[in-house]
Amino acid sequence: xxQAYRILPVYTGDISGAASALFELGGMTVIHDPSGCNSTxxxxxxxxxxxxxxxIFITGLRDVDAIMGNxxxxxxxxxxxxxxxxxxxxxxxxxxxxxxxxxxxxxxxSVIEERTGIPVFYVPSNGMHDYVRGAGLAFERLADRxxxxxxxKQEKPVMCRGRxxxxxxxxxxxxxxxxxxxxxxxxxxxxxxxxxLWAMGESLDRIKNAxxxxxxxxxxxxxxxxxxxxxxxxxxxxxxxxxxxxxxEKLFEAMDRTMADSVSRVAYLAADKDxxxxxxxxxAGAGRTVSKDIQKTAGDRMTLIGEPVTMGxxxxxxxxxxxxxxxxxxxxxDCQGLTGPGDVITRGEEEVLQALRDDKLVLADPxxxxxxxxxxxxxxxSHLAFSGRTYRKEFRNLLTASHIGSANV
Amino acid sequence: MLKRIRPEKENxxxxxxxxxxxxxxxxxxxPFASELEFNAPVHESWNIVHIGMQIPQAHQIxxxxxxxxxxxxxxxxxxxxxxxxSSVVLEEKxxxxxxxxxxxxxxxxxxxxxxxxxxxVVLVFLVCxxxxxxxxxxxxxxxxxxxxxxxxxxxxxxxxIMQKTGLTPDQKLRKAVLDPFYxxxxxxxxxxxxxxxxxxxxxxxxxxxxxxxxxYQLRQVQDCxxxxxxxxxxxxxxxxxxxxxxxxxxxxxxQRLKRRYLYLPPAMSxxxxxxxxxxxxxxxGMEMPDVSxxxxxxxxxxxxxxxxxxxxxxxxxxxxxxxxxxxARLLISHGFHVTCVYLDAVNEEEREDFLWLRQxxxxxxxxxxxxxxxxFLHGENRPDLLLGAPGGKHQELxxxxxxxxxxxxxxxxxxxxxLVEMNGMWGFDAIIRLADMMIDAYLHEKDTRxxxxxxxxxxxxxx
Lengths: 409, 463
Prior knowledge:
heterodimer, A: Rossmann fold, five-stranded parallel sheet, 15 strands, B: alpha/beta, Rossmann fold, 18 helices, 14 strands, 14% strand
């Protein structure tokens, strides 16, 4: 049965995803929930909670208030906290019971905004989806409500390859600020100017000015919805791909093409579709030091499990480096358009088991060991959005994870 | 060190009003209003997963939405018990289509069939959604019991939406695990059962010594290796519990089966401890021992601790100590400098201590742990400093000593007694040992950042 999980955990939920996306921006996130959502989020999904203050609260919803539709208490409590903290914005997130009751969050948001003068928006989570959905919706709402129209766009600086909004950056996929700093450095070293980075180590003011960018770079699927909206609002095209070792130049070439033709594209899939990059990767791989051990173990294929943009980019880099086929098993939501023909979208533990049944070599979070075939070798890449802090001692920079030398296999 | 992220206009310390109050001005039993809630990054308390894992050979199955599932499944993972945990993830269509019973039954059945071995007992946790759609839980369990007659199904809940107007999931669970008890007579054996406490009663405690010293055997869930051994705990001549959270469940069981029962909370006064021991003696027909020597030993231990700790400001939390006001009273009456107690409500069992403290230490600060301002009222901005608790501003110069992990986080101190629910310590022995732990905590730093976010103190942690 698809919804039954014998042993695997679920991915970070949509409510936590939304909170994670907005954590650093000086807003106040209110989760309309009885208990547990904040604890789950800050225990398993939020590495910044101990060391950094952020206004993320729950309402402590009671049964009687849910049954009687006592929205006044929610409004009153939010107003009280808003008066105390004067946040830059307020986001309201939903949870299963108020979602089922049909609580009018859009209306409640309007009331609070009118009374406080603070921008208030509703992130339509319900606790029944994963972090890609929740963070994606939060970034989308941010793009909708807070990004301002610059009017006439300034010319791109001559020395700059392009001004980029980097979309989809949360610890759930990128873990630590140091890794995000590395991501930024790769872009700036290659001549790109970072216009804004959504949203780690970034200010809200720069995010508000996102419309000044020439290009959106989607580094995880949590950035997809915001990219689509910024494209609709301001005509900014996007490229999806993550600058992991071995894939950077191909990604930057794809970004150049997007800058030139204003056609949005998925860099790692474009490489597959026209074949040219795939072939060049293969030949490049064949000419390099290819690990025979990996080839022998993998047979025809290595499977990567996880969020499609990061894993797709990593797969492309591994193809080049080792000359082996790769595919992505994608258990996260909202990955349509971000996976290729050979990839597999799964829902639930049973489908993951099915997808992996013939695999010999898998790169994934260590917890997938429970469902890998007995003769399969697992390359461990801890993913916060899956195993939380369970393997925190193994956290590593995703951007360097393509160096999977035989010792690691 | 800590980096504060605050909105531009919030680069200030919130007024502690509403989040902290002098005890002289505090309302009883709810000093703080129910508003938005903050969750401190301190997770050493036990949750329902930890409690359920105490039942030997039990497998747990939760039926809930993703976001709710995440916390419980990773609790199991972090305590190295994910192989004893399965889940059924609910989706919107399960609510639209009105077939929540079917999904629940089929999902649980599928999980059980996939297990490598059939467990003798399965703890099923239904959730808030099951209440709100009016799930026919009777049908769910009838069907499961028909399909798996060899399994004992425990009817547990993870329904925190009910907890402010009724019982908590923790209380319901501790009742549910006793529902299979069926023996309606006290045993003629000399077995005494201590039920539903998270931490074992240690052999050094006065209670343990009293019972075993009179030829009785004290049995606890922590001694059980199999589910049958757990069920055998009902073969006893007296049932006891020490936990406030267990009291409801154990009382319901003994009322149902008409068994002899004692509730023996971890008291902090010599008089109450003595009375509790006397209750045990009366119940078992034993002679009450002379405990004056034990009280004297407590006095000596507290004096030793005071010599070392002196006027150091002390804060206490209700995660570490079930009777935080009782402990504050004990310490203050022995010359210690208690400045702050972290709690969100005053337990009715502590009413007398509350009144005593109000009279004798009116400037003692009560601070909430969940009130939203507490996001900022910690470290150098901790409430007892802002409200001018006894000792005044000079306290800033002293390293604070905390008793309990939440107090350690709020006080931002590396000097703390790391304990949850008194670690099961009880009686005079608890006071003596706690005094020694305070000395040790005062003298030796701990890595607060590493320790307090770990879940379920004593349950094992892989992180």
